[in-house]
Amino acid sequence: MTAVERHNYDVVVVGAGGAGLRAAIEARGQGLRTAVICKSLFGKAHTVMAEGGIAASMGNSNPHDNWQTHFRDTLRGGKFLNQWRMAELHAQEAPERVWELETWGALFDRTKDGRIAQRNFGGHEYARLAHVGDRTGLELIRTLQQRIVALQQEDFADAGDFEARLRVFQECTVTRVLKDGERVAGVFGYERESGRFFVIEAPAVVLATGGIGKSFKVTSNSWEYTGDGHALALLAGAPLINMEFVQFHPTGMVWPPSVKGILVTEGVRGDGGVLRNSDGKRFMFDYVPEVFKDKYATSEEEADGWYADPDTHRRPPELLPRDEVARAINSEVKAGRGSPHGGVFLDIASRLPAQEIQRRLPSMHHQFRELADVDITAEPMEVGPTCHYVMGGVDVDPDTAAAGGVPGLFAAGEVAGGMHGSNRLGGNSLSDLLVFGRRAGLHAARYAQALTASQRPAVADAQVDAAAAEALRPFSAEPAEGTDGAAPAAVGAAGGAAGGAAGGAAGGAAGGAGGAVAPPENPYTLHQELQQTMNDLVGIIRKEQEMEEALTRLADLRTRSRRAGVEGHRQFNPGWHLAIDLRNMLLVSECVARAALERTESRGGHTRDDHPQMDRRWRGVNLVCELASPPDQLAAQDPAAGQITLRRRDMPPIRADLLDLFEKDELRKYLTDEELGQ
Ligand code: FAD
């Protein structure tokens, strides 16, 4: 039996970004003992990088705004493939969640008369994003962290222990959700610093692990986004939906190469920035799609007038939803009208006074000056699409955030699917985290509360042993027979400190004289090849043959990843961490590729070169990804065979009173005649 540290809680939240922290606050608020686990330091989650703001129809900027308008915008942005009940709850509850943040100490930018200021973003009919300059995520995380500390202080006053009911396990990675029969029983993980294993037993687990961007080469996402929660859900038996929809944000940095992909906030365009090609032309007017024709300006004069008077002008086309803008930039570059480094120009310098740019966009000003030696108050930025967000995720119940088919498992935030349909609007993620983070924490708590002591699940030793063996495999990577040996490719431990509870010899034994074996694989090489494959073959514009090729390459990478080997010990060993993360990235990448191949239309964050039109027959269809064989047999399964099965599922019809919020003419663009008849 593997020796592991064991803890016992009522609710475990995996992830300490906006969704995870909001869930933990709620579960603790219900009086339950709650653990939060995160890969990085507490407070450094991905949410901290969010720039532009939180979408909520508070009506501070325009009194006409309300939840119905926000709901309409969200469905239009998602091309009507959104889980409509989630979109409804989100639009209704977002203002309350923002006001709640303020009562917990968040300091938003203000209007002249002292209300929370709201800014414009693509796809939102009114200025709707509550913000703190272009550092909104930082303020959101700071506030939630502060709230957690306040609750811990209450617990200290009550029980003499800060961690009596809420404990954060930072710099720890969860590698498995443990189960007792069909039900969740806890999680297995390791401390990143020491490599020590631990188990947290709990009847309810909330996944709040964020996205999958690190499977792509050019991305705005940080190192943590390796699709862990998506893979943990699959391995626990919960399905994923909408995995074909990956958002390529139109404006990432393109130069210099070391910073390619880093985000340039949509706030630049929201505050008046315009996109130009190498001829100096403001090209977005040429790319307004049919479904949006009546809502966007057709001349520069009309577009510019909208900033001062949105009620009598139509919106500038630079503020179309992200998928439209990203495709337009891609087309301009392809047509030879790009900027010197393969992007287009984003110009705010000629649109606002320098001082105003520095006030509204301080991070962007700093980012370009430090990283690209560009002064955005004086010259345009070069920008191009970057992999930013995954709309697909765990299939959840809209009201309770419970994951399908696995009692005790919940998911919220970017790891959950459905809310954003085929394309997320900017600002709708931060509000999603708060709305569904709260719901996930609440319902996880209720689920755990309903169990008597004898009904609580137990963690079997065999599961712990299997999880430990799986995590240790990179230290004894099996060389493959049949090829000439070469120098071992296993990577060493960073820091090289001795010790670590198990460690073991690396797979570097391969190679040597006349060996008919292939050396262990270097996890970094595998990761790079995976990123290149996804970027080139399942990227912003997709073709059938290329995606088939991607699936072949993914099968090869899976086979080789079984031999991913590392040297050294479990202490401070990033090569080992990556070898473990590869399992997750390969699983989610296969989901993306399979679903993208199956959907023979273009919609939102899924563009098919060979099926360029949106097809109304696909509107009501979710593609559901599940594990092809039982999770405990995954290791024994032939890696060259697919690990994911795909099925089509009809979405529930949109409720009639919600459909009534739209003009019939607009619905005709999305719904089939049969749906309209009903
Ligand atoms: P995260 O904040 O990423 O948190 C994930 C957590 O899970 C982390 O704590 C991580 O350590 C932990 N974790 C992951 N795997 C494991 C594991 N195996 N074990 C333990 N812990 C694990 N959205 C907006 O609405 N407005 C914006 O202005 C905006 N700007 C953005 C700017 C940038 C640069 C980027 C990249 C995104 C932006 N987004 C924005 C999107 C938004 O920030 C994210 O979608 C959102 O923060 C995701 O939050 P989350 O709570 O789901 O996950």
From TrEMBL:
<dbReference type="InterPro" id="IPR030664">
    <property type="entry name" value="SdhA/FrdA/AprA"/>
</dbReference>
<dbReference type="InterPro" id="IPR037099">
    <property type="entry name" value="Fum_R/Succ_DH_flav-like_C_sf"/>
</dbReference>
<feature type="domain" description="FAD-dependent oxidoreductase 2 FAD-binding">
    <location>
        <begin position="10"/>
        <end position="430"/>
    </location>
</feature>
<dbReference type="Pfam" id="PF00890">
    <property type="entry name" value="FAD_binding_2"/>
</dbReference>
<dbReference type="Pfam" id="PF02910">
    <property type="entry name" value="Succ_DH_flav_C"/>
</dbReference>
<keyword id="KW-0560">Oxidoreductase</keyword>
<dbReference type="InterPro" id="IPR027477">
    <property type="entry name" value="Succ_DH/fumarate_Rdtase_cat_sf"/>
</dbReference>
<keyword id="KW-0285">Flavoprotein</keyword>
<feature type="domain" description="Fumarate reductase/succinate dehydrogenase flavoprotein-like C-terminal">
    <location>
        <begin position="527"/>
        <end position="624"/>
    </location>
</feature>
<dbReference type="InterPro" id="IPR003953">
    <property type="entry name" value="FAD-dep_OxRdtase_2_FAD-bd"/>
</dbReference>
<dbReference type="InterPro" id="IPR015939">
    <property type="entry name" value="Fum_Rdtase/Succ_DH_flav-like_C"/>
</dbReference>
<dbReference type="InterPro" id="IPR036188">
    <property type="entry name" value="FAD/NAD-bd_sf"/>
</dbReference>
<protein>
    <submittedName>
        <fullName>Fumarate reductase/succinate dehydrogenase flavoprotein subunit</fullName>
    </submittedName>
</protein>
